[in-house]
Amino acid sequence: MIKLRLKRFGKKREASYRIIAINSLTRRDGRPLEELGFYNPRTDEVKLNVEGITKRLQQGAQPTDTVRRLLVKANILEQASATAAS
User: Fold this and answer.
1) How far apart are CA 71 and CA 53, in angstroms?
2) What H or E segment, with its residue span, contains residue 51?
3) Which end of the chain lies in a sparser environment, N or C, as judged by fewer CB atoms within 10 Å?
4) Is the separation of the CB atoms in 45 and 19 below 8 Å?
């Protein structure tokens, strides 16, 4: 199964995360299928590839809880479900 999850990078205590599409059995910092965005929790900076995320969600990718919250906050999850219903 394909998951949308966070991949950690950065220094100790200064973590940033990339939002990636990856096989659910692969380790957290393993090689992703596709990088779909960026999240910095210290500054609340979020950059998302909306087109790539909606494509992956339509293909059946499951976001983790944290990524789901980021997508809901950016109104991407609703867009993806609306286009899938059409």
Assistant:
1) 9
2) helix 50-58
3) C
4) no
For the chain, give the number of residues.
86
60 half-sphere exposure, CB direction, 13 A CA radius: 4
Rounded to 5 degrees, what are φ and ψ at 66? -65, -45
**Hey, what domains does the chain have and what are their CATH numbers?**
2-85 (3.30.1320.10)
What pTM was computed for the model?
Answer: 0.85
Place of tokens 């973590």: 15
Q: Which residue type occupies 80?
A: A
Q: Are 8 and 42 in contact (CB under 8 A)?
A: no
* Contact status, residue 61 vs residue 21, Cβ threshold 8 Å: yes
> For residues 37 and 57, is the Cβ–Cβ distance under 8 A?
no
Average confidence (pLDDT) over 30-54: 93
Residue 85 binned pLDDT confidence (cut-offs 50, 70, 90): low
